[in-house]
Amino acid sequence: MDINYELYKVFYYVAKTLSFSEASKALFISQSAVSQSIKVLEKRLNQSLFIRSTKKVKLTKEGELLFKHIEPAINLIQRGETQILEANSLNGGQLRIGASDTICRYFLVPYLEQFHLKYPNVHIKVTNGTSLQCVDLLESNQVDLIIINSPNKRLSTVHNITDVREFRDVFVVNKQFMDINTEDVELNELQSYPILMLEKKSTTSEFLHGLFLKNQLDLVPAVELSSNDLLIDLAKIGLGIAFVPDFTVKDVPELTEIQLKEELPKRKLSVVHNHNIPLNYAAENFIACMLEDAPLK
After folding, report:
1. DSSP string covering the chain, please?
2. Fewer CB in a 10 Å sphere around the end CB: N or C, the chain?
3. pLDDT at res. 86
């Protein structure tokens, strides 16, 4: 079916903003032209794409399905245009990175600072999400690269994965509030204490649940949150034992690491990009910057 790309472009902006007026502003065309384009597209596809009312616009199921395909395509085209216009130049352009709050704060910030000082004209955009959510950002071409925890079940063979740092996950506690032995502790002993951990939609949660399951233990966390910093704060005031990456508690004197008899598997921070899509010059240089200064430890 031969459908003009401009029709899909109009559909994309209406679907993204859920507003004919906002789409007209983004496209610099009249609202009536937007409405007419959508009518033409719906007629050619023989499907209603939007549910219209006086106050708002909503996607139909068919519209939602189409948007899932159109969004990465539009992003890919826009990215290609940008790369062509700014090829082999760091005097402008954009570097789009996906990473979790924890990775941004405890790992990424020094590299962002270094890159910005060296290439101040490159616009840096960081999108936060869990390591699992960041894979979705990469696959929809909303970011150029992601820095995530691995292993990660969402990664596929189309991703180029480079490990930049090893880390350990640790259990930490404030002994001022909790009477607990912290030396040569067996994993099953922790079941009798409140466990503070990340919510289920995270690689860290999957890792810990898998670890308990492997040892035939039940894991019933007392608290599940979306932030490691909050887990650390709760552990500091004695609400339980927090399970966090070791690099987040190096400078937290109130907390003591619980030394387990079992050796927990190490995990890695990895930088990932889609090898089917060429990296722009800014992304290539940022990855090189990380690999030079962040060897595996």
Report:
1. ----HHHHHHHHHHHHHT-HHHHHHHHTS-HHHHHHHHHHHHHHHTS--EEE-SS-EEE-HHHHHHHHHHHHHHHHHHHHHHHHHTTT--SS-EEEEEE-HHHIIIIIHHHHHHHHHH-TTSEEEEEE--HHHHHHHHHTTS-SEEEEEES-TT--TTEEEEEEEEE-EEEEE-TTT-----SSB-GGGGGGS-EEEE-SSSHHHHHHHHHHHHTT-----SEEES-HHHHHHHHHTTS-EEEEEGGGSTT-TT-EE--BSSPPPPEEEEEEEETTSPPPHHHHHHHHHHHHH----
2. N
3. 65
